[in-house]
Amino acid sequence: MSGFADNRSIATVALVGENYDEAIAWYVERLGFVLSEDVDLGGGKRWVTVTPANRQGARLLLAAASGERQASRIGDQTGGRVFLFLETDDFARDHQAMLGRGVEFREAQRFEPYGTVAVFADLYGNLWDLIEPKRQG
Fold first, then answer.
1. What is the pTM of this model?
2. Residue closest to 132 by CA, chosen among 86, 68, 84
3. DSSP label at residue 21
4. What is the per-residue pLDDT across 42-57, written as a single tens digit (0 to 9) for each?
5. Residue 107 phi, psi (nearest 5)
6. DSSP summary character for residue 67
């Protein structure tokens, strides 16, 4: 009825950073993501995507800033609010693993009506929630 296909999803989110290789290393080593694609586009540009190891949810396009305007947004793409949400089925397990790998949490875990959550920062300062959603029922 809407004129759109029924089977659509948000597949990729672009994350602006400084350096492809340091971003790949951080997401793979600290968050346990998998490098999905690394394609040379020429002129210093690459198509680099990472995904959680289970390949569920949207993938991240790690994009090197092009020009001063994009560079000024590194680490602050959303004006200081949480930008991305990493969902887990076991908050305690993943929180401990991330701390052990040097991920910087900006707060202690807290319990909200929607689940257990804590804010962490990526290598550029973008804010994320690690969240275990509250089970329904």
1. 0.91
2. 86
3. H
4. 999 999 999 999 888 8
5. -160, 165
6. S
116 three-state secondary structure: strand
Q: Which residues contact 23 (CB under 8 A, 6 or more apart)?
A: 15, 17, 48, 62, 123, 124
Instruction: State the number of CA atoms in the 13 A half-sphere of 122 facing the CB.
Output: 32
Strands (E), the chain: 12-17, 34-42, 45-51, 59-64, 84-87, 104-105, 110-112, 115-121, 127-133
How many Cβ atoms sit within 10 Å of the Cβ of residue 124?
19
3-class SS at 122? coil
Closest CA to 109 of 126, 125, 94, 124: 94
Give the residue ranges of DSSP H helices in the chain.
20-31, 68-71, 91-100
